């Protein structure tokens, strides 16, 4: 399965590219914004597509023409304003979903926020609410399609070394999880069709990633 990773230059994305390239069943294509970001992916023998997520749907669709699945890991990051949150986390996600449809790519994995319910938007701190709202509507857009989607809701992301163990279910208590382990969950999700049409929350835990994903 050839996988287009949107947001490949992000921290989860870089881990994911590595894990995909180590998996005999998967092959990575990294979608990045700038040519100067390409060296990491070339070192891992991953194909690269230079596409600005704030550009046109057709550009994303062209990058997706030869792939079997798309993973959306892009995010505006904590140091940008509400404008970038809208342009990347909402508009970028929706454009990628539409590009998948244009390119006839059925499998789509979305990396969302831990809780994107309406209640989560209302209870979020003022500075965080736009991000939760953006993720909420991106998730809603995806679930309204006929794509073979999975939505992953990670807990508080850390840069701790991965443990390859998580707690994963439709609902779990809030907690933290290493980005490396989320990347492992994504790779396991791509290899497991039972995750299609599912959405689940993930935090650090005691269950091996493969076993946790199979149980969903």
Annotate the secondary structure layout:
Layout: E1 2-6, H1 11-22, E2 27-32, H2 39-43, E3 47-50, H3 57-63, E4 69-72, H4 82-102, E5 107-111, H5 118-123, H6 129-143, E6 148-154, E7 156-158, E8 165-169, E9 176-178, H7 179-190, E10 198-204, E11 207-208, H8 209-214
Parallel strand pairs: 1-2, 1-4, 2-3, 4-5, 5-6, 6-10, 7-9
Antiparallel strand pairs: 8-10, 8-11
Helix pairs in contact: 1-7, 3-4, 4-6
What distinguishing features does this structure have?
8 helices; two-stranded parallel ribbon; alpha/beta; Rossmann fold; 11 strands; 216 residues; single chain
Brief account:
The protein has 216 residues and is α/β, with parallel strands linked by helices. The protein has eight helices and eleven strands.
Please give the CATH architecture: 3-Layer(aba) Sandwich
CATH topology: Rossmann fold
Largest sheet: 9 strands, mixed
Number of domains: 1
Strand content is 15-25%
- What is the molecular shape? globular
Organism: Gracilibacillus pellucidus
Protein name: SDR family oxidoreductase
Describe this structure in words.
The chain has 216 residues and is an alpha/beta fold. It has a single domain (2-214), classed as 3-Layer(aba) Sandwich (Rossmann fold). It has 8 helices and 11 strands. The strands form 2 sheets. A 9-stranded mixed beta sheet has the order 3-2-1-4-5-6-10-8-11, sandwiched between helices. β2 (27-32), α2 (39-43) and β3 (47-50) form a beta-alpha-beta unit. α3 (57-63) packs across α4. It is globular and about 40 Å long. It starts with a strand and ends with a helix. 46% of the residues are buried. The mean pLDDT is 95. This is SDR family oxidoreductase.
